[in-house]
Write a structure and sequence with these properties.
Helix content is about 35%, strand content about 20%. The chain is of the alpha+beta class.
């Protein structure tokens, strides 16, 4: 039975995935609604079951099967065929064959479209359904279905007189024509042409996603008004069979594949009419072959739009595509906003300081001397002593300057794009205006992201053009070449690979900063002039405690006598996480040389692992005296989902809830040796800027790593001892 434990989740998700969801309760609602027509429900169930077991037996990635990615297209084919044809052994055979065929077509489309980072949507369903509709014209033993005429009889057999009465009551409610058509359009996604099914499908959509529900209404009514504007003949039945295209398009492009915000909502004013024109024109073509257009307009619009966005060089209209799909518009939004705040708005690729030790910003953005206009987003770094001097003795020679001949590091992984390495270093006070940038190296980190380090020492650049370099690798020495009177390091980020390129405003990641007598550890930011900055040297005890090794186990014993085991794993997509099998929980993390970031949690929020996720949300392995770390949680990760209903609705426009993280380090950072280190902090929930609740936590770290973990809030108090890792 354990081998089939994946099946219920995969089954319910296959139904929910029709609306881009993995909410099992939404899937259950939709599954039950297909049984308004008993045979539709049965054949739909057979088709999706066939698809799921086909994927399982040919060895597809189990998580994709669980998510319903290979089931929802087969479901639609099975439901569609059972609507058109009478139940029979031949129909059963066709449904099973179609279920298998749809899986292989899904894999084919996944391979073809996946190369361009595009989803296959419901293209497998459309193609298989058209194939079978054309083929069945030769199958004389298949009879067309007349069950729609006897819906009440079928409902009576399914649920008795009470179900019939409820069905008739819903269909007799005097909804406005447009609202009734909206419900019919929602139901038509599952070939259910009645208000009863549409209403409860819409209710399930509201439970699954408040943003998705509002987008479905917006998409429908934009198209509805556009039809009126065009003067296109309108009827409830004919419109509902194409109206669901506008609902699905609005959800897909308004909040599922693109982060929901003001821009996505406004863009639908143009996208939905385009979908309508495509749908109306395609229907004229397919009428010649007596084929339904179904969801083809939705597929065409979404794929064209997503593909078009890949050619942008500037996100000036504020449409940000998803880089980690959370299967919910709300979760996508909250996680995206938090990711921007934690790791920078320019790109998910972090850029670090290009040197060891503590340096001072002697000229920052919009500098006093040279950082102006198109080249204003840059830094000059030098090393100062305790008196603020940048040199020893009289400062007459290059070697008197503390930063001269110091190692310069690669600020991130990349490839050397261009370099200059043969310009003489200037004597103190002299400048080489003919070779303004002096010895320079430009490194490509990604498309439209390059770093440039200038005024380097002659002959000190180690890599060659085309060489790969890695974060923290020594690549050159600081010098005094070019337009530089005194030794310093010029550092900038740019969108093009040339030495004279304009700068871009791109933040640095994970650096310690002392500025105006305050010490902070910045997740992302632009250090200002006169700020002292450094990449903190990791404390060996902290690094050992929180540097998880793939394949290891972490064992705990709680104050309640419970023994808890976590495994350190990496998934199919190379995401690293801690897993607690006993509570079916996982905490995903990102680990680099100096910092642990917990980035996502799924599972039981009463588990020790969830408490650890809140407490170890951000751990710096290096620290200064009395350092305090601050960070932000995604709203959905700290608030009860039932308490953020209204926030979800208005989240694309305004957020009034916030989750904050605070971690405090010891008073003294140096001279600790192998003494115990105590970290303590809070996870704070606030509304409209006022705290409404908080949790407190504490870590004790010894020479051998984690020793104890404590967590408490108004509902619980946990103490756990680490017994092995």
């Amino acid at each position: 039975m354990k081998k089939l434990a994946w099946f219920p989740e995969a089954l319910f998700n296959s139904y929910a995935q029709v609306f881009f969801s993995n909410n099992k309760w939404f899937g259950i609602i939709l599954l039950l609604l297909t049984f308004v027509d008993f045979y539709v429900g049965i054949f739909g169930l057979i088709s999706v079951t066939t698809a799921l077991f086909t994927g399982y037996f040919i060895g597809l990635y189990e998580n994709n099967i669980r998510q319903g990615y290979y089931g929802f297209n087969s479901l639609l084919v099975g439901v569609g065929l059972s609507i058109y044809f009478q139940p029979s052994p031949l129909l059963l055979v066709l449904v099973i064959i179609s279920g298998m065929l749809t899986v292989f077509l899904s894999l084919a489309f996944e391979g073809i479209l996946g190369k361009y980072g595009l989803p296959f949507l419901s293209l497998p369903f459309i193609l298989v359904f058209w194939i079978l509709r054309l083929a069945t014209r030769e199958f004389e033993s298949l009879g067309l279905s007349e069950r729609g005429v006897y819906v009440l009889n079928e409902l009576y057999l399914l649920g008795g007189r009470n179900l019939v009465t409820m069905y008739e009551w819903w269909n007799q409610i005097p909804f406005h024509t447009s609202l009734k058509t909206y419900f019919l359009s929602i139901g038509a996604i599952f070939f259910q042409q009645n208000v009863f099914s549409g209403f409860f499908a819409a209710l399930g959509l509201l439970i699954y996603s408040r943003i998705g529900f509002t987008l479905s209404l917006l998409g429908f009514y934009i198209a509805y008004l556009f039809y009126i504007l065009l003067g296109v003949p309108f009827s409830e039945v004919s419109y509902s069979y194409i109206g669901f295209n506008y609902i699905l398009t609005a959800i897909a492009l308004g909040g599922y594949f693109i982060i929901p915000n003001r821009s996505t909502y406004l863009s639908l004013l143009f996208i939905i009419p385009i979908t309508a024109v495509i749908g109306i024109s395609l229907q004229q073509v397919f009428n010649l072959f007596y084929l339904p257009v179904h969801s083809f307009p939705f597929n065409v619009t979404v794929l064209l739009f997503l593909y078009g966005l890949k050619f942008r060089v500037d996100n000036r209209i504020g449409l940000s595509t998803i880089f980690w799909q959370q299967q919910s518009p709300e979760k996508n939004l909250y996680n995206f906003l938090t990711f921007q705040e934690r790791f920078g708005k320019g790109s998910p690729l972090p850029i670090y300081l290009p040197f060891f030790g503590e340096w001072t910003v002697t000229q920052g953005h919009n500098g006093t001397f040279t950082h102006k206009d198109d080249w204003r987003h840059a830094w000059d770094f030098e090393i100062q002593d305790e008196q603020g001097k940048t040199y020893q003795d009289e400062g007459d020679f290059l070697t008197d300057y503390y930063c001269f001949d110091k190692n310069v590091l690669a600020p991130a992984d990349g490839e050397v794009e261009t370099l200059v390495n043969d310009i003489e270093d200037n004597s103190i006070g002299k400048r080489n205006l003919d070779k303004n940038w002096g010895n320079t190296i430009v490194i490509k980190h990604s498309e439209f992201l390059f770093s440039k380090l200038s005024h380097l020492k002659k002959g000190s650049i180690l890599p060659k053009i085309g060489d790969k370099v890695f974060k923290g690798e020594i690549i050159a020495k600081a010098g005094n070449s070019g337009n530089s009177a005194y030794p310093h390091l010029h550092f900038q980020l740019q969108a093009t690979p040339f030495i004279g390129s304009k700068t871009i405003d791109y933040p640095l990641s994970d650096f310690w900063m002392k500025y105006e007598e305050k010490e902070t550890l910045e997740a992302v930011g632009n250090p200002p002039m006169l700020a002292k900055v450094s990449t903190l040297t990791p404390n060996p005890q902290l690094k050992k405690a929180f540097s998880f090794v793939i394949g290891n186990q972490i064992q705990w014993e709680t104050n309640k006598g419970e023994k808890v085991i976590w495994e350190v794993k990496r998934d199919y997509l190379l995401n690293t996480y801690l897993e607690c099998k006993a509570t079916d929980s996982r905490a995903f993390y990102k680990l680099d040389e100096g910092t642990l970031h917990l980035i996502h949690f799924v599972g039981n929020r009463k588990s020790l692992l969830y408490q650890f996720y809140l407490a170890a949300y951000k751990i710096s392995f290096g620290y200064s005296n009395k350092l305090q770390l601050r960070d932000s949680f995604p709203v959905n990760m700290v608030f009860n989902p039932n308490r953020i209903f209204f926030q979800d609705i208005i989240a694309p426009f305004y957020r009034f809830l916030k989750g904050e993280y605070l971690l405090s380090y010891p008073d003294k950072a140096r001279g600790l040796g192998q003494q115990n280190i105590v970290l303590n902090g809070k996870a704070i929930k606030s509304a409209f800027g006022k705290e409404i609740e908080h949790s407190e936590f504490l870590f004790q770290i010894g020479a051998n790593g984690l020793q104890n973990f404590q967590f408490k809030n108004k509902n619980l108090q946990t103490q756990a001892k680490c017994t092995g890792s």
